[in-house]
Amino acid sequence: MQGSASFTEAVKGVSAIIHSASPFIIASDNVERDLFEPSINITTAVLQAAHHEASIKRIVLTSSFAAVVDLNRRFDEEYAYTEKDVNNFPKEDALRNVPMSYEVAKSLAEKAAWSFMETEKPGFDLVVFNPVMIYGTPLQKFATPLGINTSNMLAYTLLYKAMPPNPLSFFV
Predict the structure, then answer these.
(1) Beta-carbon contacts of residue 5 (< 8 Å; ≥ 6 apart)
(2) Contact at 8 Å (CB) between 130 and 63?
(3) Taking the CA of residue 97 as centre, how many other CA atoms within 13 Å lie in the half-sphere pointing to its CB?
């Protein structure tokens, strides 16, 4: 990925962008490289490309509840999250706790997006959604549960209450 140039052609003449791409992995030997950098860099590259295209009026960033969850409150059914909430799990701790690194990556990407909006003051607005889950038909074909991505693995686990080898124990 070479920054905003990668998206220059894709944004020409469009009025809105839905940005929903971000790595979602739970095993990595280099969280900075595999999660933090791509999450932030792709998000800012889309915003930068859009900033140079006058036709764009709105960008919708599909983030995640992971970006706003307060881990001290995650099981508090009485708490109502608002736009003021943000996941402040320390980046340094997430580097040692790979399952938490996804949450931190989503939070860092969203913070980078809002920082871009404040600094650059582009001619479009930004809307961020933080859904708990999004699932759809998998794009890749797979023969076994071991061949599917992390999101679909979680759906498989919820539906079949079964885990393939190498369980994602923190989700169960």
Answers:
(1) 49
(2) yes
(3) 10
The C-alpha atoms of residue 135 and residue 143 are separated, in whole angstroms, by: 19
User: How many angstroms separate the CA atoms of 103 and 88, rounded?
Assistant: 9
Domain spans of the chain, in order of start:
3-133, 135-172
- Alpha-carbon Rg of the chain, whole angstroms? 17
Q: What top-level class would CATH report for the domain 3-133? A: alpha beta
Q: What is the pLDDT of residues 78-137, one digit of tens each?
A: 888 888 888 888 888 888 777 788 888 999 999 999 999 999 999 999 999 988 877 666
Contact call for residues 107 and 67 (beta carbons, < 8 A)? yes
Residue 140 CB: number of other CB atoms within 10 A?
8
Contacts of 52 (CB under 8 A, 6+ apart): 4, 8
Tokens standing for residue 20? 């929903």
**pTM above threshold 0.85:** no
Rounded CA separation 8/46 (Å): 9
Task: Give the residue numbers annotated as catalytic, written as ranges.
Answer: 106
Q: What is the pLDDT of residues 18-74, one digit of tens each?
A: 998 788 877 788 989 999 999 999 999 999 999 999 999 999 999 888 888 887 776
CA separation for the pair 35, 11 (Å, rounded): 24
